[in-house]
TrEMBL record:
Gene3D superfamilies: ATPase, V1 complex, subunit F (3.40.50.10580). GO terms for molecular function: proton-transporting ATPase activity, rotational mechanism. It holds the Pfam family ATP-synt_F. Keywords: Ion transport, Transport. Belongs to the V-ATPase F subunit family. It comes from the Bacteria. InterPro entries: ATPase_V1-cplx_f_g_su, ATPase_V1_fsu_sf. This is DUF5615 domain-containing protein.
C-alpha cells in the first residue's frame, strides 16, 4: 500500500517526494484528472490533500468521501 499527496505547493511536492511519497502538483485545470487517477489506484491507501486544494474542490472531495472509504483521504495544512 502507498500514499500520495495532491498539492499546489512546489515545496511540499519536493518534500514529500524526498520522503518517497508519490506527489502531484494540481491546479484548477488538472485536479479532476489527478483526483480520479488517485482514487482508482487500488494500491493507494492514503490520499493526502492540502487545505488549499481542498478548499477549491471541497464539494467533489466530500462527495467522494461520503460514498467511498478507500483510499483514506486526509486534509493537511500546507
Amino acid at each position: 500500500m502507498k500514499a500520495k499527496i495532491l498539492t499546489d505547493s512546489n515545496s511540499l511536492l519536493t518534500m514529500f517526494r524526498l520522503g518517497a511519497i508519490e506527489a502531484s502538483l494540481v491546479g484548477d485545470q488538472n485536479f479532476e484528472v489527478e483526483f480520479k487517477n488517485s482514487y482508482k489506484d487500488e494500491n493507494l491507501a492514503i490520499l493526502i490533500i492540502t487545505r488549499s486544494v481542498y478548499n477549491k474542490n471541497m464539494n467533489r472531495i466530500d462527495n467522494y468521501r461520503r460514498d467511498y472509504s478507500m483510499p483514506l483521504i486526509v486534509i493537511i495544512d500546507g
